[in-house]
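TL;DR need structure tokens for one chain.
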Amino acid sequence: MKTLIIGAGPLGSLYACRMHQAGHDVTLLARGNHYVHIKNHGVALVDAFSGERTVTRVPVVRTINPTDEYDLVIVLMRKNSVLQILPMLGRCRGVGCFLFMGNNVAGFREYLRYISWEKLMFGFPGGGGARVGHDAHYVDSETPGGKPLSVTLGELNGTRSPRLRAVRKMFLQAGVPVRCVGDIDSWLKYHAAFILPLAGALLQAGDNHALAVDSDSITQYIRAVREGAKTLRVLGYTRSYNIKLRCIEFLPESLSRSILQRVFRTRFAEVAMMMHVRVARDEMQELEKEFTALQRQAVLRTPNLDALNMNLVPDHGGQR
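>> reply
TL;DR here they are.
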């Protein structure tokens, strides 16, 4: 399967390296000076747990042309950046399937303006990180040497199509676990209900370590997650798939708070949560607008979610 990965951030770089090492025909798209660096020096990955730095020579291009042919194009970019390149991707007639792996609250209408539904697939990566210079610092497990986090994949119509199975197989051969879901739209919305107030709480406290000792902000986060989940259920989205979110919903508040205090002290929280929030404020702001639109449709009181989301709004007077 001839594959192009658009997005040379931490996870795009990680998956490109893993697939290349597994023998797949994969190319990474990078831009500007980063393209030049990768072409000359290779893709540099830094395991944020161990500090180990590896370099892999992955084929790299600086653009995709309308006449280029790929069986699969995987897009790993922030939501606001994805929206900007949709018209260009829509002109690429030689692509068999576009797999968009990233945050998305608003659904698929904007994608369908440019790309036909039979060429669309959606999902989400496992792990996180940030680029520091030309090095991609990443975590793909919650603990050092722990079980790798799964990517999530889903077809718009919820079926386990032959191409879904083929993409799943490619990730598995690269050592990346895969979870396939029947309602990827609902999965993505509940994921946003989990991570948006988390971003707001991290910014409010200052960082993950400060949040770990800020009981009031953690309590506010727990209540905000519950409000977001209730908003989605009122609108008819009943399949969350998110075990962690369900724990926050149904465990006693004191127990959830104790668990989260331990989580926020970890290196995983520092890399996958805080590092990402710092470099992706623009995406968080886009997602906040999209989720606010859902809140207006539901017509529910969501005071904790509203308060934490205010920390994502540009020029808000609170903690940056």
